[in-house]
Known about the structure:
- This protein is α+β, with helices and mostly antiparallel strands.
- It has a domain at 2-265: Phosphatase 2c, domain 1.
- It has ten helices and 14 strands.
- The longest helix has 33 residues, at 315-347.
- It is globular and about 90 Å long.
Amino acid sequence: MLRVAEQYVGTDTGRQRRANEDSMLARSPLFVVADGMGGARAGEVASRLAIESFQHGLQDTTDAEGSLAAHARAANVSIHERSQADAEHAGMGTTLTALYVGAEEVSIAHVGDSRAYCLREGELLRLTDDHSLVDELIRQGKLTPEEAVEHPQRSVITRALGPEAEIEIDTRSYRARAGDVYLLCSDGLTTMVPDALLAETLLAHGRLRDAGEALIAAANEAGGRDNITVVLLRLEEVAVAPAFLAEDPATLTGMPALPENGSVEPLPATGDEQQSHRVAGGAAPATLEPPSARVAEGAGASPRSPRQPPPNAPPRTRRRRRLRGVLAGGIVLAVLALIGAGVYLTAQSVYFIGTNSRGLVTLYSGFPYELPGGVKLYSKDYVSGVSASTLSAQRRRTLLDHSLRSEADAAELVRSLELGELK
């Protein structure tokens, strides 16, 4: 069974745009990138509405493709209705590329010219087709990839969420492998950085954070004409009991190789997808010290622990006492396990706002503490495109104080920051 072992999320306004109209969601096992369009900040609204449709995860993971498409269609309705009701948002739209990590495969829903890639065994595989004018011309043989780079209509997309009341969603599933690295990105990266350099950059960095920041830097160095968003995730294999396996591991095959036209063929239809399960490792239980021995009073009495049977006790009595000792130890361990489970569940339901290593306002889940030995009681949940340095001193003190919040409250504050409603 596969799960996400490492992830990175980063976004940058670029060098030629005044605002960032990209939005993203990285909440394992679901990852989404949306690139808004429409001007006058309408693009920001469109991409945010698209992400909100995925905010609570998939409703049905037994049909990941169908569920992804349903969420995308709901986003299309929300964006289209807003654009019809508000003249300032008329004509707004957004691209969408969403990826869900299942037990043995990844599923993708896609509209527009944001992209998904897979880096496997040194080869970068493109998993989505652009819904753009130049890509349509390339597929028809009327334009070469080299000509498309400088085509005057290279930014024209032929499909997006929002402009029409109904939308066709591309969905595909692929066999996944441990060690796969998946990249979701807006076209602010791919119009600036060719696929060969994408692969070279990913291969040159062991940590996804280093690779992601290097990709953003490369796009800016090439001109940074658009907003740049990068989402990276690496998969690992986890051991599970045989009952949880979706199918015999010996029958699992790898993702098909890229055909000559540069697109990846989807998997044949398979049975129900097994939902991903985390296997949590735990530390060995601490040794419980027995209570101090009481010294019996009276002349000639010898000190002896109450749990220690007298030398002349019958064997059955000694066995019963040993059994009671084992049961008592088991009860203590069970209580400790329940306490640990309670702490873990609580940590999954509380959030706080801080900054990441790049100074971007970041939403974390868990408690803002680190135990001895570097054990963190929190994990990164969402990285915004807002730099903490742009906030007022008062706002930094009240917002970035690591106060525990509900998910809805923390997410709403971060969203307000991204929309410029808080300064």
